[in-house]
Amino acid sequence: MISTIPVFHVISQFIFIIVASLLLIFEFFLLFATISHRNDTKFPVAYLIVMTICGIVCKIAFITDFTTYLFFPEDIYTEYRQFIGKEITLVGTLSYFVPMCVSVLMTLNRLFIVIKPTDQAIFSQKRIFVYSFGILIFCLTLLLIPYFSDCSVNFLASSLEFQTDCAPDKHPVTRFTNANAICIPTTLLLVNLVIIIHLKAVRHSTYTKLFQKTSAVGSKRTSQLARCQKRREHALMRQTLAITVYLSFYEVGSFLMRTFPIFYQNLPESIRSAYFYFRLETICAITFFVYFMESPSIRKTLLGRSDPKKNSGEQHGNPKISTITLRI
């Protein structure tokens, strides 16, 4: 079927498959490393396992779609879409929605750290798994409603669009999620920026200077807790920008296409297609950028450059002043 596909799409989908496959290998390695280092304080085990599993499923779904489209005859690809296309699309979409909703959980986790930095029982690893399972059930229910209707969604690799059985109409749930999904990353970005500004204000005694008051909590803060707060602030700045920006790429693109449809349709097809591949690749690469590029401690451990003595000291030190829940 490759001979009948425009060269641009063949090259772009080949590149996508290769990059996604490399990222898939990384995801498996990260998942294995997370399980192996489940007692290491540098690994936010629950968040990492949830994000890597979703990343693995997402990449497998799109690699399957593009591979089937490129290497099989058109009639077989059509049968594939009729037989299992809707299910692959549902699973791929689910693996995108879950991390987006888990990012809400991460932000709540960070907010709770600001309120009660030494009491994180409500966000223990086991509870994070429970919360994530609840998010999975919620997202799956949201996607199954249109799936069992006459407006189920099916991804079409030839035109790079998510088609519905009732096209050009869409199920109300699909319209709602498409229109409002952008609210999650943008709102979280604002909330996390407020948290970062608050932490900087506390660290530089801005509130004390403004209101001429001495904080009871600040007067009792030990130098160790101050250092931990500084590390938390830096981790928040890196992780917040990384997660929210990477989550926003796809949704901002959808928002712009809905807001300026005429302008978007007037763009050359190659530009529109390239932008879609770019948005899709950012979804596949979010775990790599957030937990490898933007997390020095995890990156050093994965590359085998961690200091065993330092790790041991962290694990057997003061358990109440831990920054594990902030490296998310």
TrEMBL record:
The chain crosses the membrane at residues 6-33, 45-72, 88-108, 128-148, 179-199, 240-264, 276-293. It comes from the Eukaryota. The keyword Hydrolase does not apply. It holds the Pfam family Serpentine_r_xa. Keywords: Membrane, Receptor, Transmembrane, Transmembrane helix. PANTHER family: G_PROTEIN_RECEP_F1_2 DOMAIN-CONTAINING PROTEIN-RELATED (PTHR23018:SF6), SERPENTINE RECEPTOR, CLASS XA-RELATED (PTHR23018). This is Serpentine Receptor, class T. It comes from Caenorhabditis elegans. The gene is srxa-6.
